[in-house]
Amino acid sequence: MSNPSSYYLRLAQRERLTDISCDDIVVKLTFEALAHEQLPAFIAGQCVRMGLPSQPDLPASYFAFASSPHDTACYEFVIKGVHPLSNALVKLKVGEKVEVEGPMGKGFDLSEHQGKNIILMGVGTGIAPLRSVWLDLITHRENYGSISIYAGFLSAMHHLLTDELQSLAEHGIQISISLATGHDDWQGPVGYVQHALQADASNPDNTVVCLAGMNVMVDACTETLLELGFNEQQILLNF
Predict the structure, then answer these.
(1) Do 139 and 213 share a domain, yes or no?
(2) Same-domain pairing of 20 and 48
(3) CATH number of residue 122's parent domain
(4) How far is CA 170 from CA 2, 132, 136, 138, 147, in A?
(5) Which helix (H) or strand (E) holds 123?
(6) Residue 51: which domain range?
(7) Are residues 74 and 96 located together in one domain of the fold?
(8) Which of residues 60, 78, 104 is at a domain's end?
(9) What string of pLDDT tens digits covers the 239 residues of the chain?
(10) Both 177 and 87 in a single domain?
(11) Residues 169, 85: contact at Cβ < 8 Å?
C-alpha cells in the first residue's frame, strides 16, 4: 500500500453502462473530493481500496481507476455488481460517500516506453484500468507509435464505453472489439481477445502490451503473445 491514509469521496454522477435489459449491472461512478480537499495523484492502472461508511459490515475491496491521471477534479471507476460491496456500490446515490485508501499498485507506467507501439488488452470491467491508460496516452499521443486496443465483452448488452471506444480512431488508435456471443447484426470478431490478436498477427517489434482482466484471461493472452514472439519483458501487468 503506497498511501495508507484513508479519505472520503462523494458520488457526483452514476451512469449505467450495460443495457437495461441485461441482468449484469455495470456502472461508471464519478467521485469528487470533499470541500477543501484534493485528490491524490495516481498512475494509470493503479487502484484504491474502497469501502462504504454507511455499511461498515461489508468488507472493503479493490477497484482500478478508470479516469485520466491528468484529471484532478474527479475519480472515475467502472464497477460490476458481483459481491455484496460492489452490489451496494452500483446502487449508490449521488451525494453518498465512500471511504478509500490509495492510490496503490504499480499501475502501467509507460513513460519508459516512449517511442514504442502500445497494445492494450482487456475484457469486461478490465477495460477500466485500460481506459485510464488510453486517456493518458491521448494526452501524450506524439510520444508513442501505433496504439491498438483489443477489448472483449460477453455480448452486445455487455459492450461498455461503446461511443468512447469508437471515438478513439480520431486519435489514431485502432480498435478491435470481440464478443464472446455474437448476433446477426454483429460484424466484428466473435470469440476471445487473444483470438483477434492472433488473427491480426501483431508484430512484437518495438511493442509493449498492457493486460488487464481476470487471471484466466491474462494467462491465455500471455500464452498467445509468447507464441507470437513477444517476450515476458514486453508484457505489462498493473499488479
Answers:
(1) yes
(2) yes
(3) 3.40.50.80
(4) 36, 17, 15, 10, 12
(5) strand 117-123
(6) 6-104
(7) yes
(8) 104
(9) 344 589 999 999 999 988 888 888 999 999 999 988 999 999 999 999 999 999 999 999 999 999 999 998 999 999 999 899 999 999 999 999 999 999 999 999 999 999 999 999 998 888 899 999 999 999 999 999 999 999 888 766 666 677 888 899 999 999 998 887 766 677 777 778 888 888 887 889 999 999 998 888 899 999 999 999 999 999 999 98
(10) no
(11) no
Residues in the chain: 239
Q: Determine contact, residues 42/104, Cβ cutoff 8 Å.
A: no
Do the beta carbons of residue 95 and residue 70 sit within 8 Å?
Answer: no
d(C-alpha 118, C-alpha 108), whole Å: 11
Closest CA to 89 of 18, 27, 131: 27
121 within a domain of the structure (yes/no): yes
Domain count, the chain: 2
Task: Give CA–CA dist 160/65, Å, rounded.
Answer: 15
